[in-house]
Specification:
The complex is a heterodimer of chains A (220) and B (180). With 220 residues, chain A is of the alpha+beta class. Chain A contains eight helices and six strands, in the order αααααββαβαββαβ. Chain A has two domains: 3-70, no CATH class; 79-212, Alpha-Beta Plaits (2-Layer Sandwich), CATH 3.30.70.1350. In chain A, β4 and β5 form a beta hairpin. Chain B has two domains: 1-92, Rna Polymerase Sigma Factor, Chain: A, CATH 1.10.1740; 105-180, Orthogonal Bundle (Arc Repressor Mutant, subunit A). Chain B is 73% helix and 0% strand. Chain B contains eight helices and no strands. The chains are: A alpha+beta (220), B mainly alpha (180). Chains A and B meet through α1, α2, α4, α5 and β3 of A and α1, α2, α3, α5 and α8 of B.
Chain lengths: 220, 180
């Protein structure tokens, strides 16, 4: 902190000083710099040592804010999971598969079945988006409450023992063979759930209810 | 696989009850919610609470979202309102760790010390602003929202935003000049 700079500071920001020595308003010059326009000098500023000194000083003063704006702010680990846990708690998903073995019972939450089904379906070529949710009535009621009654009527996952009924709503890319994509989703989801979870009877209902342009394509 | 699906599509499906559509929105906007909360409330613990409350609250309020604004603008509004409530309930903390803890392995001890001092000066200066000025500074100068967008988020006018920023910049200028 030099003595000359200290003098400049007092003159710029003391309570009774709203103008530079040339009459330019301090706040307007500071705004100019803060808005990133400090390099674009007007006719007066190009020939005014007071304005140029102020702009130089304000660049120094404001530089920490530029750095702050550019600094990444990492989101805490598990934050997203924590948010969705709370959201899911609101709809209270309690459905489970049940498989009895000699060693005991194996239960898999229906949301896990749904997640696996969605994950498999998403990897089918031509599929752009996949959605699914449980269809248990009390869950549907809670969702209806939370969403004002606006919900999709026929998409979900129901499980009972080693039987699962899975409804998936999918969006596909315009121009793809829709029936081929739907058949491929059914085949892959059924195979995955049989091999991965040990389900025996599986119905996979596919509703193609959106067609989206390929990324980069524009209407017309 | 989900490239090209815009926010409006996800909002509409989330309003229909699809949790995974909302999960995608949470993926996209967790950073925004947490960053704004941190810069307004001033500490990581409260910021995480505020951001989570905002995103869960947004899910509960989805039926009221009428797409008159973008989802991001709507979320900015929810986060800033909840952050404002939080700061008005608490005493100012001594540390506003808004820059984060990203280490610069190339920086020497003197540079790191300089940056720590600068960080403290900036964060203390922001922390000392009245809440309304603090929010306008965060939204405009740190988040890059226009005056009109800040006015929309804060339910105020462009003139009020401009006034807040004028006063805030002067206060910040005084604080940082004294530090330098």
């Amino acid at each position: 902190m030099s003595g000359s700079n200290h003098e400049v500071r007092r003159s710029y920001f003391s309570d009774d000083s709203r103008e530079l020595a040339c009459g330019a308003l301090v706040d307007e010059v500071l705004e100019q710099v803060a808005e990133g326009d400090g390099e674009r000098l007007n006719d007066h500023q190009q020939h005014c040592p007071h304005c140029q000194a102020a702009i130089t000083e304000f660049h120094r003063v404001w530089s920490p804010f530029r750095r702050l704006a550019d600094e990444p702010v990492p989101v805490p680990r598990r934050f997203r999971a924590s948010v969705m846990h709370e959201v899911e708690r609101l709809v209270h998903d309690v459905g489970y598969t049940l498989q009895l073995t000699d060693q005991g019972a194996i239960r898999v939450a229906s949301r896990v079945v749904a997640a696996i089904a969605r994950g498999v379906a998403r990897r089918v070529p031509g599929v752009r988006f996949v959605l699914g949710r449980t269809t248990q009535s009390h869950v549907a009621d809670l969702i209806a409450t939370a969403t004002g009654g606006r919900r999709h009527p026929d998409s979900g996952v129901g499980v009972l023992g080693r039987t699962a009924v899975i409804d998936l709503a999918v969006a596909v890319t315009y121009g793809e063979q829709v029936h081929h994509i739907a058949h491929e989703i059914q085949r892959r989801v059924k195979a995955e759930l049989q091999n991965n979870i040990g389900l025996q009877t599986i119905a996979v209902n596919v509703t193609v209810d959106d067609v989206l342009l390929a990324p980069g394509d524009h209407p017309g | 696989m989900e490239a090209g699906v815009d926010d409006a599509y996800l909002v509409r499906r989330a309003q229909e009850g699809y949790l995974d559509a909302y999960a995608e929105l949470v993926d996209r906007y967790s950073g925004l919610a947490y960053r704004v909360a941190l810069r307004v409330v001033g500490n990581h613990h409260d910021a995480e609470d505020v951001a989570q409350e905002a995103l869960v609250g947004a899910w509960q309020q989805l039926p009221n979202f009428r797409a008159q604004s973008t989802f991001s603008t709507w979320l900015y509004r929810i986060v800033t309102h909840r952050a404002l409530n939080r700061v008005q309930r608490q005493h100012p903390s001594n540390s506003l760790d808004v820059i984060g803890d990203v280490a610069d392995a190339c920086a020497g001890p003197a540079v790191r010390l300089e940056r720590d001092l600068m960080k403290d000066a900036v964060t203390d200066a922001i922390q000392a602003l009245p809440p309304a000025q603090r929010i306008t500074v965060v939204l405009h100068h740190l988040e890059g929202l226009s005056y009109a967008e800040v006015a929309a988020v804060t339910d105020s006018s462009v003139a009020a935003v401009r006034s807040h920023l004028f006063r805030a910049r002067r206060t910040l200028g005084v604080a940082l000049q004294q530090w330098r």
